[in-house]
Amino acid sequence: MIKISNFTFQYNSSPNPILTNINLKIKSGEFVLLLGSSGSGKSTLLRALNGLIPHFFGGIYKGEIIIDDKNPIQYPPNQLAQKIGYIFQNPDNQLLMEKVFSELIFGLENLGFSRDVIEDRVKYQISRFNLVPILNQKTYNLSGGQKQIVALASILAMSPKILLLDEPTSELDPFARAHFLQNLFNLHATHQYTIIMIEHNIEHVIDYIDRIIYLEHGKIIFNGIPKQFFNQFAENSMIPTTSLIKLAYQVKKYENRNNNYLKNEYLPLNTQQFSSEFSDFFLARQEKILFNFQNPLNYKQECNNSTNYRLNVKNLELSYTLTIPILQNISFSGCSHEIICIMGKNGCGKTTLLKSIAGLIHPTNGTIKISIDKKENASDFQSTSQISLVFQNPSIQFYRDSVYEELDAQLLPFCNSKLERDKRIENILDFFDLKQFKLQYPRYLSLGEQQRLALGCALITEPAILLLDEPTHGMDQKQKVRLLQYIERIKEKGCLILIATHDLELVSSIASKILYLEDKKIKWQGIPQEILPYYTPFTTEINSAMNLIFQRPTPFLTVENVIEVFMDDAKECFEQNVMDVL
Amino acid sequence: MQDIALNRENLSQSSGNIKSFLLFLYLSEYFVFAFLFDNPIILVLLFILLIIIICIFKIQKKIAMLSRMILIISLFMMLISTLLNPSGDHVIFSLWEPKHFFPIINITIENLVGTGINILRLCIVLYCFGIFNILIDNDDLLRILMKLHIPHKIILLITLSLKFFPLLNRDFNHLQDINKLRRYSIEPNKKNRRSDIRIKGEILLPLLTNSLERSIQIAQALDVRAFGYSKKRTNFFQYKISKFDIIAIINLILLGSGVIHLWIIGLLEFSVYPSISSSILTQLDLFTILFLFVLNLFLILYFSFSKKDFQEEFND
Predict the structure, then answer these.
(1) In this predicted complex, what is the ipTM?
(2) What is the rounded CA–CA span in Å between residue B119 and residue A473?
(3) 3-state SS, residue A319
(4) pTM of the model
(5) Which residues have a Cβ under 8 Å from the Cβ of A556 and sit 6 or more positions away?
(6) B232 and chain A: CB distance < 8 Å anywhere?
(7) CA-to-CA dists, residue B199 to B140, B183, B212, angstroms
(8) Which residues on B lie below 8 Å from A95 (Cβ)?
């Protein structure tokens, strides 16, 4: 049992408390989802539970936390480790030893268990997660998913009663995420661990959680069962939700257009519940889908003219060493106003492909041809940047004292005129709503603001091709929606955008084309509606639900797709809802 | 539960053993010797012995990259030393008369020998690091340090550095990519040295900030894995020490203490400036070197017979 009473915490470096007056009780065996926007205090709460606060992170600590009669203030994290397991967001920072087996036994050796106990416990974890094939491998050679599984197994070997997970799947591809979460759910079902998990992608965990705790500005806004949460906040588009719940809410609203929406009605949380509740609604409107199957939802390839390309990749082969290629026989093309999403498992070569297009890795074979329009009124530019690449973690690339200086430094190699540079910087600050941060130190910005600045730095040279590596990584719903809007606006400017991502929501919302990499090659290539409905881990929740209702693959991937076809008269109302998020 | 054919002996094969630690000690001794002695014969011997180790473990290809780097640094050292160090009695070539105000470019025998000694020293140090990185299993090293009850703060420091440098390298490469995209170069820019230095200086800040953040995360990870929980830490792997291991340990102690003793009494002393020592080695020196060489040969023989105990990729 975890009991938190009047808990307030303020980091030494922060002017305000990050958590204020938290009162909470969590029973043994509960699976709790911690929700909240970035900076709302979720990670701080987990750190307070495992003793990292106050033993590792100092600050002003008020109130009391009791975990099974132990107060973390009296026990440092290494004393609580046997009771509380903590899984980090990035497994690279969690794995300490060189080999998998050494990693598994490390915690148990520290706890001083006998060799027999260590042997038994480790064997059990090896069997539970089927780790035999990777037992002798080096941890840094494992894929992201394998690393996270090893991190989980090594924590579970210590037999904690409570598991704290800080966005454990944010680095994983859909296959690895599904595998990791399935293991976690099985553990909870069979062993009744108390699990407290931070996760932005609610749809993957919603069926398994007992409770949602929603934090905002360091305060608990909601603490209750998921059904209640989504009903209470269904009308509030600022609160994180799943696309299926969003759609269910829209359908209910549409059905009850003339009446008031009934708050007592629970919204369906998963595809089964959704299909059983709304199958009549959709099946009654079958003629609409039949019509749209013939003209599939206006999804047309904009780059059908082979001469109208900005990027043409032909028989590309890439390798870091001379002997082992990472990618082989990669051919595709892209034109302006197009968004190409590159998908695939962790380590399949997505980032490598982006780097080679950006000119950072030279191909061992094949060609990358880039054609750009000559810009008018660009006389002040010595040369124009053709390609910009925004890396996954934007903060690493900032090293100037202010947002303005960061943008100016980006522009300096291309433009000598101070006047011209200032004009462009002002435009970019306007475009990305960064004007108020003009003189702020870039590393002090929030993740969303940093991502916008990174995009600004990339776009200030007006590149023909923009490459984005996992742009939604670590972002909450609000930041993500906002980023999607910016990407759309960049596309409208005529830029070809290539995005390496695992984010299905992003792909289904904005991709003109998908490249799926597997076994060093492009396995599938086409528009999302041609690919996603046929491959289970890559299907969106909306698509799964619609496929279930119609008992066949359908082209619906997003809430917008469904509304467009079935509730076209409610479209405006829905768009207003999306705008509210911004 | 799935039946796993794993027993402790099987599992322990997944990791190295005491030999990793002995090789670590052996390389550490070389590292120290390289700084203790100026005597070129000693340094050449150490260098040859390291080459023998490299050949025995067949890691020439991996060391080749390091050798290329040493070659470039050596040329640079040679150039700097020739231009800036005019010391030495035996002049081979001189560009200006000493009365001139400008720095004298004086190439002397002493100068060349002194540079050669420094290059040899650099080779030994870098080869020691190279062999360490390639052959020694970090897990083994940490485990043995823990078994030896080295204070846990020191082990924490070693763990941090073992994880820290590869990550630092990765961050540096990442920043290099970003700067290439920005059309700044981290490679030396002959045209604009000042901006070159400024850009490099600016990169240090994010590099250090990221590294600091990473070290904090690694330290947190150690904490949540109960590191330092109790003084009675279990060592899952039981290290069986054979007779040969004991002889090797005695050998290492003899070698280390013997050489340090010789250094204290100044037996293998060698001076370069102002002129090279007339007699490089005395008879006693020669005898001592021979004795140390035999000790070394035994150790190399011991490591070569234990090849299978080092990192598995070198057995493939």
Answers:
(1) 0.76
(2) 47
(3) strand
(4) 0.75
(5) A297, A542, A543, A546, A562, A565
(6) yes
(7) 40, 11, 20
(8) 221
